[in-house]
User: Which sequence fits this backbone?
């Protein structure tokens, strides 16, 4: 098992740092899956996470100038690592002006991702900052736990409002209630509702637009027959929603959510070279 | 008694100094002397000492008079006061408010009343007055012979801050490793560090990056980063280079800055190699400091005082290791072999001979008085921290103890200066 990668371009480095920062806000520990062409940050839906799950996909070519990987075996040319994304975020935080960043899988005292940041200095040789981030190697027999989640059979799919607006609203609602209801219909209308003994607050969004999903045989018929005004709703943990919104550092190109009534809300945030899917289950 | 006025521009510096000292301990010594005002602090395990000295030129106005207490035969040359940092911080809290609105700050001491008054004269005629009670206390001063250190680095505070920023704020200890060819700061790890849970950071630098680089002996010293951060923040407002004086592991490391109107020194204990070795040997029993202590046959009643310092950090372990040695000296003291005056004075590092005289009493009295606890701790810990074996006649001095204090010669006047005060 070998892995080496290098980023030289500052813009790519900043972009990569931003992705890592977002992941760090969403998960304390997660799985990093490395393939020849892509990196995935995966959080599988365990009870410990409160049932949320995450799937984030990046094309390595968009970030790394050099990327070499050798998986556990020829037919399974992939590496699955368990790590604390906050550590990676911290290692990259001070690399804002780096000349180069190299990441390598090493095994000195234990398996680590070694991040070596080459910083400019006043002297002839660069300053080198090395961070050894401990990782866990996930054995192949457990790889099945980390398969890409399928898009659920949703009732309504709708584009999200401007994330910044949504974030500030959810943040204020968070002070009043532990759970929030998201409801939306196929007419581009979405409501965020909280209700407590003392107060209920609803924020209405309209003209959001509904994404058209490529119909597979039989799958979409339920959605197409649906009354356009009828709301699909789910009550979810408000903190999880707030974490998702707060973690976004750049406005995505596309942001949408799929609601399965009373079951789960599936968020999809697409950037040019990164896609992030986040599932928040409905509260009982 | 002292009265001084700090002008607006310097308030920021003064505030940073207080915050820097706050990193060391909850209380600090407010020590006005003729030449200026010294603020000092030492942490509970005596492994960190800070002193910021503002010369009278720092102040818009500085006036100090000696006060004689009715009960003292000699004039007090200085009367240090101990203040709780938490009480002082609010005075200098909102830095923006401070810089925009406060025109100057006056500080008066009122010995009889045991008060120190901080008065902020703000714009629009607003005057904020804070009266703080101080505790009488014994003088605190460490003596550290910087010029005897083989390794000296001088670096701009900006660079030092740029280095330390790579370590997380939770990082307690950091190891500085130098050879004539390179300098490296890295996270400290012990033998039993759980590497699978800890992120380790290492920064390698070229000696050329330092304004002054002298490495007389290859060494690797480990010190507490948390305590240093205060000095780093402080040095940023002064834009004066930071000097680092150190030796091999086990000897203290001093970070200091000096300009025309102020001097600041932070002296931190470093983990000694011997202690590291012993620590790994005694690893199974290490959790209980009492267990370590009980192995020492010389450990006497002083164990009650000092065993309470649990070795939560490696530096505390150093303290416990050194104490038995000193404890032995204490025992010999009660048998009538008093330390020589020079040694005792060096140990306490008295600023003024008069103070020293007050402290030097026959041993039996020392035990009971409130001063004695301080003296004992001072002798033990400062002794272990800064002086190594200030020649203990009976013991064969161990190779790891070299006296760092320029032990004052007996022929020197008591009233005159002490050796390289900090």
Assistant:
């Amino acid at each position: 098992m070998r892995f080496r990668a290098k980023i030289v371009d500052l813009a790519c480095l900043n972009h990569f740092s931003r992705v890592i920062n977002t992941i760090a806000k969403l998960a304390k520990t997660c799985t990093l899956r490395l393939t020849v062409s892509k990196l995935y940050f995966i959080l599988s839906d365990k009870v410990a996470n409160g049932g949320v799950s995450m799937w984030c996909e990046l094309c390595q070519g968009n970030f790394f100038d050099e990327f070499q990987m050798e998986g556990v075996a020829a037919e399974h040319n992939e590496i699955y690592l368990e790590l604390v994304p906050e550590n990676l975020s911290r290692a990259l935080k001070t690399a804002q002006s780096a000349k180069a960043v190299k990441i390598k899988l090493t095994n000195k005292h234990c398996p680590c991702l070694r991040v070596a940041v080459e910083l400019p200095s006043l002297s002839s040789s660069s300053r080198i900052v090395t961070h050894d981030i401990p990782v866990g190697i996930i054995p192949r027999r457990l790889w099945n736990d980390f398969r890409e989640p399928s898009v659920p059979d949703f009732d309504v799919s709708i584009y999200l409002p401007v994330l910044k607006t949504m974030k500030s609203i959810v943040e204020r609602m968070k002070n009043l209630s532990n759970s929030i209801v998201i409801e939306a219909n196929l007419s581009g209308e979405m409501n965020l509702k909280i209700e407590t003994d003392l107060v209920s607050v609803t924020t209405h969004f309209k003209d959001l637009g509904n994404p058209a999903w490529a119909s597979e045989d039989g799958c979409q018929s339920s959605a197409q027959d649906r009354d356009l005004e009828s709301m699909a709703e789910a009550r979810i943990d408000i903190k999880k929603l707030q974490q998702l919104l707060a973690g976004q550092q750049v406005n995505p190109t596309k942001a949408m959510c799929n609601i399965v009534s009373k079951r789960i809300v599936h968020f999809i945030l697409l950037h040019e070279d990164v896609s992030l899917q986040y599932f928040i289950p409905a509260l009982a | 008694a002292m009265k001084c006025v700090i002008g607006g521009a310097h308030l920021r510096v003064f505030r940073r100094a207080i915050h820097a000292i706050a990193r060391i301990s909850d209380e600090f010594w407010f020590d006005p002397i003729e030449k200026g005002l010294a603020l000092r602090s030492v942490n509970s395990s005596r492994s960190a000492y800070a002193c910021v000295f503002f010369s009278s030129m720092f102040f818009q106005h500085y006036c100090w008079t000696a006060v004689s207490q009715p009960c003292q035969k000699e004039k007090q040359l200085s009367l240090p006061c101990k203040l709780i940092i938490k009480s002082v911080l609010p005075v200098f809290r909102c830095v923006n408010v401070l810089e925009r609105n406060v025109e100057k700050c006056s500080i008066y001491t009122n010995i009889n009343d045991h008060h120190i008054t901080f008065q902020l004269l703000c714009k629009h005629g607003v005057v904020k007055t804070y009266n703080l009670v101080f505790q009488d206390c014994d003088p605190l001063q460490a003596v550290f012979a910087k010029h005897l250190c083989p390794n000296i680095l001088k670096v701009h505070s900006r660079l030092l801050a740029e280095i330390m920023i790579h370590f997380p704020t939770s990082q307690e200890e950091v190891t500085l490793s130098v050879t004539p060819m390179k300098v490296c700061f890295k996270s400290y790890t012990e033998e039993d560090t759980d590497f699978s849970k800890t992120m380790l950071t290492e920064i390698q630098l070229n000696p050329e990056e330092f304004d002054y680089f002298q490495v007389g002996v290859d060494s690797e010293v480990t010190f507490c980063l948390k305590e240093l951060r205060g000095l780093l923040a402080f040095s940023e407002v002064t834009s004066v280079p930071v000097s680092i004086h150190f030796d091999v592991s086990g000897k203290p490391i001093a970070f200091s800055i000096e300009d025309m109107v102020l001097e600041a020194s932070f002296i931190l204990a470093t983990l000694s190699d011997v202690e590291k070795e012993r620590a790994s040997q005694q690893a199974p029993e290490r959790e209980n400091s009492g267990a370590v202590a009980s192995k020492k046959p010389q450990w006497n009643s002083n164990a009650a005082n000092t065993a309470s310092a649990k070795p939560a950090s490696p530096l505390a372990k150093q303290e416990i290791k050194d104490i038995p040695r000193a404890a032995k000296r204490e025992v010999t003291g009660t048998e009538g072999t008093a330390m020589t005056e020079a040694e005792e004075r060096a140990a306490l590092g008295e600023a003024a001979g008069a103070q020293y005289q007050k402290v030097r009493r026959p041993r039996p009295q020392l035990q009971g008085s409130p001063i004695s606890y301080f003296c004992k701790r001072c002798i033990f810990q400062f002794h272990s921290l800064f002086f190594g074996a200030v020649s203990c006649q009976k013991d064969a001095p161990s190779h790891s103890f070299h006296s760092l204090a320029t032990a004052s010669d007996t022929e020197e006047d008591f009233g005159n200066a002490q050796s390289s005060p900090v």
